[in-house]
Design brief:
about 40% helix, globular
Length: about 375
């Protein structure tokens, strides 16, 4: 089912809604246009509060669901204006939604994404596919990560073993063996940018550490790093997935409170950057030791300090942004959900059981018709 699709992504950093216009020809995706729309400060603060476990009500969740749905629709409309396309030219929207709770383990596994797809379909006049994660969970999986199926379709190569590392608020890897008879694997490795974003917002009032410049002024604190790395999540075997519900500010602040002396804020930022670099590297070394190339996508690809550390820790394997393969790193996930929407409309699976732990491959998401 070739044609134009739109992918919508709002990740764990909760800083913006990303929309990409993708053309599929013979199943190959081509990025035609993109648009990013910031999440209003007040709305982002409320989303973060819910995600960090603040008490709330069903009424407030319903309000946030509707507001995010409208914001997603506005982002699509802006993308259409900028690209010169009309709603009738788009086959479908694939909307990841905004995760406010992800708990795939325990007695009642679940994952909740808001951003009402009914509103998106109604306001844009475009069929919308959404709620991708819960079908995988129903099939016994983690519901995440889902992007590895897209990584496999686009980045797998017959001549070398690769890993794609996506560094958003949470970091994850996709292991892409060159041999077709070897399974694709992937999992969340731990914090990506989320804790670094929180720390710089708290101490400098900035939304992110541009280029990792603040982290570069500090020194990683050995005792704090060791304490953080001692968390049981890092030694758990995949399949596994996580989110802000686990790696939240209280997780960091609890560790800081256990230290006998205070640490300079810049040194904490440097430690958090090192935590992301080390946990990604250890995951690759343990689960993909024959990797020959590491591709980086997500906002972390623009953190120069983080990229320098990854290049050093993973040497001699080359570490490079997905821009080297003509896909800007910040738009990879949006492309993935456009691809997943197409899979759903074709009645094809969108999950990889060897990644999520699901019993079988399943068609993901619900379809909300434009009619």
């Amino acid at each position: 089912m070739n044609g134009h699709y739109i992918g919508l992504m709002s990740g764990t950093s909760m800083d913006a809604v990303d929309a990409v216009l993708v053309e599929f020809s013979s199943g190959v995706p081509t990025l035609r246009a993109h648009h990013g729309q910031s999440i209003p400060t007040e709305l982002r603060a409320r989303l973060l509060a819910v995600n960090h476990g603040e008490n709330t009500t069903v009424a407030r969740i319903g309000e946030l669901d509707a507001r995010m749905g409208r914001l997603f629709a506005e982002t699509v409309q802006a993308l259409l204006r900028e690209s010169g396309m009309a709603a009738r030219d788009i086959r479908a929207i694939g909307s990841h939604g905004q995760t406010i709770y992800h708990c795939p383990d325990g007695d009642t596994p679940t994952s909740v994404q808001i951003g009402d797809p009914n509103l998106i379909a109604e306001l844009t006049g475009i069929t919308t596919v959404a709620d991708f994660r819960r079908r995988d969970i129903a099939a016994g999986g983690q519901g995440a990560p889902l992007v590895p199926a897209f990584h496999q379709a686009v980045f797998r190569a017959a001549h070398e073993d690769r890993v794609v590392a996506n560094i958003g608020g949470i970091a994850n890897i996709t292991v892409l063996p060159r041999a077709e008879d070897q399974a694709v694997r992937g999992f969340d490795t731990g914090p990506g940018n989320a804790l670094m974003d929180y720390w710089i917002k708290t101490h400098r009032g900035e939304d992110l550490d541009e280029d990792g410049c603040w982290a570069a002024t500090g020194q990683a604190h050995a005792a704090l790093l060791e304490m953080l790395l001692d968390d049981a999540y890092f030694s758990r075997q995949p399949p596994k997935s996580t989110g802000r519900e686990y790696f939240h500010p209280a997780w960091l602040n609890t560790a800081l409170s256990r230290l006998a002396s205070s640490i300079a804020p810049a040194d904490v930022q440097a430690t958090l950057c090192e935590l992301t670099a080390v946990t990604l590297t250890e995951a690759i070394n343990e689960h993909a030791p024959v990797t020959q190339r590491v591709l980086i996508c997500g906002g972390g690809a623009y953190n120069k300090t983080l990229m320098t550390r990854l290049a050093s820790l993973l040497a001699p394997r080359p570490v490079e942004s997905t821009i080297a393969f003509s896909i800007p790193p910040e738009w990879v996930e949006g492309l993935a959900f456009a691809w997943l929407a197409r899979q759903t409309l074709l009645g094809l699976p969108g999950n990889i059981p060897s990644v999520t732990g699901a019993r079988r491959a399943v068609v993901l998401g619900g379809i909300y018709s434009k009619q």
